[in-house]
């Protein structure tokens, strides 16, 4: 099984991101880059099922496959920016779409990767979705929805621009375009180390513990979690103490790369085995077999990627506000066959599953952020202690397990 690709958020180096078919960036937020230049997704496709407002692009991947129908392939994940909607009914708050083109298509030259046709969809000037609606007065401002038109009129610059264009003058609007998008970052990938054969995280994969790279700076912390995990297992069996084994495994795995915002693990061949997401809790998991089949070809959908809680920090979501956006992880499952329905549609909807850290689902990301910070501080402290002790470390590795301040061990009591 191939290694998991970890995605990290980076500020674009040369200003706002751009794209061509030869250089199609994976990204977070901002306006969507449409693989199919003639057909942008419509606001109706990405309307929040709770507040009925237009969702924003959370991230998109360019993931070409070795199949004629999916020579070019992009996956889009949208979500409502209002955390209150997610608390009310999260299933109405996400939409994932697959878009693909064969090698020979009307839009891109196969050898050069250049645009063959200049025809482009009109795009909403606020959000970049299909902009087939427009300002009735100037007929010069495309929008995806009445919602965004009103927003641009009442809070944005369009009222001033529209008035100026009616009188033939050029406008210097005083108001800025309202923010309806997530901030934009480039998504840069890197292979996860130390888990080359163990992308699965099902209950039977405990032996992955034996694949830890030796000599990592995080080893003392990881060893400790490993011990906790073993203890926890006994506790569960003997006293049914409430310990979340999946959470411990999750913490341990992401500690090595705590800045990861995405885990990508698609296996495109049908006979698998297919990876599972790295679940954040024992509660609210979904079995691969429970992912509903593709509505177009009736074939199975398999896990493709998951969004990590660290993305909330990158997007500067304030965990402590009541309506903060929140998740433990968001997993996307896609049609294994990369089917292209005969109606020629440009967007095939895929399946999204959200999991929280705890059953009640409150303050989850805050809890995780705190746990993560605590764990990182601990690792830093242990690493610096290890450095201080490095002269004697060779004589006795046992010393590294002693309490950092040299006092008597609390566990001896
Ligand atoms: Zn909403
Ligand atoms: Zn719009
Ligand atoms: Zn206008
Ligand atoms: Zn399908």
Automatic annotation (TrEMBL):
Pfam family, any one: zf-MYND
Keyword Zinc-finger: yes
GO molecular function, one term: zinc ion binding
Superkingdom of source: Eukaryota
Region feature (Disordered): 191-222, 380-413
Feature: compositional bias, Low complexity: 402-413
Protein name from the UniProt record: Programmed cell death protein 2
Taxonomic source organism: Geranomyces variabilis
